[in-house]
Amino acid sequence: MSRDHVLVTGVSRGIGRAIAARLADDGFTVIGISRRPVPDFRGIHRAIDLTAPEAREALGAIAAEFAPLRLVANAGVVEAAPLDGVTTAQFQHAMRVNLESVIWAMQALAPAMRGAGFGRIVTLGSRAALGKAERAVYAASKAGVAGLTRSMALELAPHGITVNCVAPGPIDTEMFAENQPEGSPARQALVSRVPLGRMGAPSEVAAAVAFLASDQASYVTGQTIYVCGGYSVGGGA
């Protein structure tokens, strides 16, 4: 087992890619997971579909090979639809990627962390968990991540393992642009409600994750940190 190894899920783009780069800059050996290969990845990459039946086995294999003592559960998808448009497929996909995969990753890595008496787990939530129109399934899955984070913080604290959540607000990523394109009225309206008056950058989320994954964050656990430009305070839905 190694305190220098960190497993990061969803590293192919956006926030996940920024997190992997920041942790590599901080001197960690990053084991990155994504469905697609990542050219010039700075670390060890495994192509794994976290919704596939064999995903749990693949996570177990990574745990057996590297025994990483740090986990950043970042992989996520957005399912956008009004209530009447929500489908079973959308619900199942969001829950499998955004919530179920987090549980399986924790389950795979926790034994080594318990054995070492040390661990850092950082989950990725969302400001949308506080409520967002036409994001019912996404918001529900991310609210589940926040609840899971608090519960695991209590369960794992006796073993020296901290568990925290970073919840981004509007961040300028490819996934955000797919749902609210540059120049669209929806995007402009959202940014106008952000107290800091702008979109966030993936690197700003990565900075918060890097602290919570570090040795220095030894007395912080069970918390959700919003990186949202103030949107969680007064932005609205």
From TrEMBL:
GO biological process, any: fatty acid elongation
Top-level taxonomic group: Bacteria
Name this polypeptide is given: SDR family oxidoreductase
Cited Gene3D superfamilies: NAD(P)-binding Rossmann-like Domain
Similarity remark: Belongs to the short-chain dehydrogenases/reductases (SDR) family.
Any GO MF annotation of the entry: oxidoreductase activity, acting on the CH-OH group of donors, NAD or NADP as acceptor
Record Pfam families: adh_short_C2
